[in-house]
Design brief:
The protein has eight helices and eight strands. By secondary structure, the chain is α+β, with helices and mostly antiparallel strands. A hairpin with a 2-residue loop joins strand 6 and strand 7. Helix 1 crosses helix 5, helix 2 packs antiparallel against helix 5 and helix 4 crosses helix 5. The longest helix is centred in the first third of the chain and has 15 residues.
Length: 194
């Protein structure tokens, strides 16, 4: 589990603002699932989803997501991982490959989620992208309630990664604006899935 507790350039949980928020969210809570839920709700509800709000900034470091209060699903998953790891809760990254027709027709892209290791339940996936009409992600272990149910030709990637995929990081670092990101969403090829 150590690799799911590590700090990195993106999951920079020793940053003072991350430490402070992680501590405040956990204050008075004893169970890992209660702390995880508090962190999840904060990221889901208090951090804008950049696509929903058309925020013209692309964040990728946890501290920057918190500072600017916005991030694409990938960035929000990075902040959630930082808050949870700061509270010594193992957290990984996982992905779905979904249709991105909301932004562009006949295009697929990755959607960022987290997998949290809860003592009572084991690995549990959550989606902190942010709710809106027809999107209702919840934290109700052991039941998963993600933002999107898979449709035809959409898949869950089976792996839990200790860090965001390189294709995610590159997209976040190279596409600075809303308009750039919506035509450059990260995706993977069939070859990468094999």
């Amino acid at each position: 589990m150590d690799k799911f507790l590590k700090e990195s350039e993106l999951v920079n949980y020793s940053h003072a603002t991350i430490q402070s928020l992680a501590s405040n969210l956990a204050c008075g809570l004893l169970l890992d699932e209660d702390i995880a839920k508090a962190c999840f709700l904060y990221v889901r509800d208090e951090i804008n989803h950049s696509g929903d709000f058309k925020d013209n900034i692309t964040t990728y470091k946890a501290s920057d997501v918190l500072k600017h209060k916005t991030g694409w699903c990938y960035a929000k998953s990075i902040l959630l991982a930082a808050l949870l790891r700061a509270n010594n809760i193992p957290t990984g990254f996982c992905y779905q490959r979904l249709s991105c027709s909301e932004y562009e027709k006949d295009v697929y892209c990755l959607h960022g989620l987290n997998a949290i290791y809860l003592k009572k339940y084991g690995w549990y996936r959550v989606d902190a992208r942010g709710n809106k009409e027809e999107v209702d992600a919840q934290f109700i272990p052991p039941k998963e309630k993600l933002a999107f149910e898979l449709q035809e030709h959409e898949i869950d990637l089976p792996e839990i990664y200790e860090e965001p995929l390189d294709v995610i990081v590159n997209a976040l670092k190279n596409n600075k604006t809303y308009d750039e990101m919506i035509v450059n969403f990260p995706d993977i090829t069939q070859k990468m899935l094999s």
